[in-house]
Specification:
single chain; mainly alpha; 6% strand; extended
Length: 401
């Protein structure tokens, strides 16, 4: 469907600019007049602009927190949902994001609830998003539900950004070190070590090993690339299966340092998301089923789904979670206290904050160890190369003497 940019005047006499999707120019004018906007200028979007989406709105993870916060603010200020969606779609430069908002706007205008309209856009909005909005509509607290949802998405975005920032330097350092080693083995070492192959003398074992590795990088690099590509494709296909996902997640949980960080991160996400959903009035069994696929680990996900089944049978949440070995006793105790006091959402949120602090501390310690390890490994590789080159020289100097 074509998209048109317009400049118009509202019923209040305020000049506004925005975009509208319609089949033709007359249809766009009619739609604007129906919304109380009198168009002054109307131009169709060109293909070039569609190919250059706004960088700030590429990707659902970056788009949803901003959208939810703005929608929460507008709805909380008393702006009708249709008008709020129209205002937001007019501000979006990314064609795909704008298309989604316009479709939701049209669905709401035709009589569908906002929650159901969001659920119809499953590729953009996760299931728990639509459930939170529907719960807010049914309880008459839509602005509050949107505000809680925005807080939750912003917390997740901050956590992701902290992890990315912490990993940037070590990954850059490791990449540079790897490129340096590949360069040495591909171009520098063959020229230096090639001199020794014409001496007719048996070379030391380290030198022979270095020559073999150097020959692989210098002449067989394309084979290495093909093998690497095949391994990546095979690995991705295996990890796309349920068996592969479970094997990967089980291995991650068993790793010495990383395993504890992965475990705590999943628990933090579980606590914060469940807190947001219970505060929004979603029944605990449905909240558990919605939260389970979002924790990022299939082993913990299976435990949460099993707990949801026990809750449906009438078991309390704390007792249902007690059957899961990966849920620590302190976590279960706090859940029990929350159930007894009626402040489950508050205590879950506080547990999420506490676990986040521990994750950040453990991640900082792990990264502080990673940098010297990278330097040490790089030093050992360079030392091996230097020794392999010097050993034949020392033997030659001994023979000459």
């Amino acid at each position: 469907m074509p998209t048109y940019r317009y400049t118009g005047v509202s019923r209040e006499g305020v000049e506004r600019k925005g975009v509208v999707d319609a089949e033709s120019v007359p249809a766009a004018r009619l739609k604007l007049r129906t919304d109380g906007m009198y168009p002054l200028a109307l131009t169709e979007e060109t293909g070039v602009r569609r190919l250059l989406p706004s960088l700030s709105l590429l990707g659902r993870k970056e788009f949803l927190p901003l959208l939810t916060r703005q929608l929460s603010t507008l709805v909380g200020a008393g702006v009708p949902v249709v008008s709020a969606l129209q205002s937001l779609s007019a501000q979006v430069d990314d064609p795909e994001s704008r298309r989604v908002l316009v479709e939701i706007q049209e669905s709401v205008r035709s009589g569908m609830s906002l929650g159901r309209a969001i659920e119809s856009q499953a590729q953009t909005f996760p299931e728990l998003y639509g459930a939170m909005v529907r719960a807010g509509e049914e309880s008459g607290t839509l602005p509050l539900s949107l505000s809680r949802l925005a807080d939750h998405l912003e917390d997740q975005a901050r956590t992701r950004n902290r992890v990315r920032s912490a990993l940037t330097y070590p990954l850059l350092m490791a990449s540079v070190a790897g490129l340096v080693v590949v360069f040495l083995l591909s171009f520098v070492v063959p020229k230096i070590v090639g001199v020794f192959s014409h001496l007719g003398q048996a070379l030391p074992l380290p030198t022979r090993a270095l020559i073999a590795v150097s020959n692989v990088f210098a002449s067989g690099w394309w084979v290495l690339l093909l093998l690497l590509g095949a391994l990546v494709v095979a690995g991705r296909r295996y990890l796309a299966t349920d068996r592969g996902k479970r094997a990967r997640d089980t291995l991650l949980l068993r790793l010495p340092i990383l395993g504890r960080i992965v475990h705590l991160s999943a628990l933090s996400h579980f606590a914060r998301t469940l807190s947001t959903m219970t505060a929004g009035g979603i029944p605990i069994d449905r909240a558990l089923r919605l939260v389970a696929p979002t924790v990022g680990n299939t082993v913990i996900e299976e435990g949460i789904e099993a707990a949801a089944a026990r809750v449906v049978e009438g078991t309390s949440l704390s007792e249902a979670l007690r059957q899961h070995a990966l849920i620590p006793p302190s976590f279960i105790q706090m859940v029990a206290v929350g159930e007894e006091s009626g402040k489950l959402d508050y205590l879950l949120d506080k547990m999420g904050e506490a676990i986040d602090g521990e994750v950040e501390a453990r991640l900082s310690r792990a990264l502080s160890l990673l940098e010297p390890v990278i330097i040490l490994v790089m030093g050992m590789v360079v030392a091996f190369i230097v020794i392999s080159v010097l050993l034949p020289m020392l033997e030659i100097s001994t023979i000459v003497r």
